[in-house]
Amino acid sequence: MFFKKKKQEQLSEMLDSFWETADEKLRNRDMHLEQMKTEWEQKVNQIHNDVKKHNLALEDLFDEWENKSTSEETLEREHMERLQQEKNFLALFEAYLDQFFSLKRFAGKKDMQWEEQMELMEVRLRKYQELCNIMVIEPGEEPVDYDFHEVIQLADTEDPSLDQKTATVLRCGYLYKGEVKRKAQVSVYRLRKEREANE
């Protein structure tokens, strides 16, 4: 009995030790599972936050793209409006140029005071033309230049020094920003002998 009691005590101790060890292992496993669960939740939350940030960044990008498209459309519209304004401005200038040229050509020749007044106006207007990047094509002493002149008529001359030079301007031409927008229509002297030989 003594042995039996001793064995029972040993068995009881072993069982207690086993249950303590099992209990400790279960507690450790539960702690480990809890820690894994916490880490997993943190990772899921981090992924969720990253996806949220990514979505917000995409939304910002789409908003920026939409704003850029709108800005480009606005710029295109404003550019087209400026082109139309420039076209209207040049049409207005051409009307002014034709009227002023006609006044100078016909009215100025009949009255000296009127001619002087027209010359004064022309000097003042030339300043504003330069500010607007406009240069009226003036007849010069040089031979006709087909880049700037459109020959409409020929005028006979016997003077060889006048050959191929502008006789009269029939309609003014002009350059805008260095580009010929309208050639001057002119009458050009042609040496009579040369013309008769060509005919």
Characteristic terms for this protein:
3 helices; 199 residues; Nucleotide Exchange Factor Grpe, Chain A, domain 2
What report would you give on this structure?
- The protein is of the alpha+beta class.
- The chain has a domain at 135-199: Roll (Nucleotide Exchange Factor Grpe, Chain A, domain 2), CATH 2.30.22.10.
- It contains three helices and six strands.
- The strands form two sheets. Strands 1-4-5 form a three-stranded antiparallel sheet.
- The radius of gyration is 49 Å and the shape is rod-shaped.
Shape-level CATH architecture of the domain at 135-199: Roll
Largest sheet: 3 strands, antiparallel
- Secondary-structure element series: HHEEEEEEH
> Using DSSP, what is the number of strands?
6
Mean pLDDT score = 85
- Give the termini distance in whole angstroms: 158 Å
- Spatial strand sequence of the major β-sheet: 1-4-5
CATH class of the domain at 135-199: Mainly Beta
Q: Find the CATH superfamily of the domain at 135-199.
A: Head domain of nucleotide exchange factor GrpE
Radius of gyration: 49 Å
Q: Could you estimate the helical fraction of the residues in percent?
A: 55-70%
Shape: rod-shaped
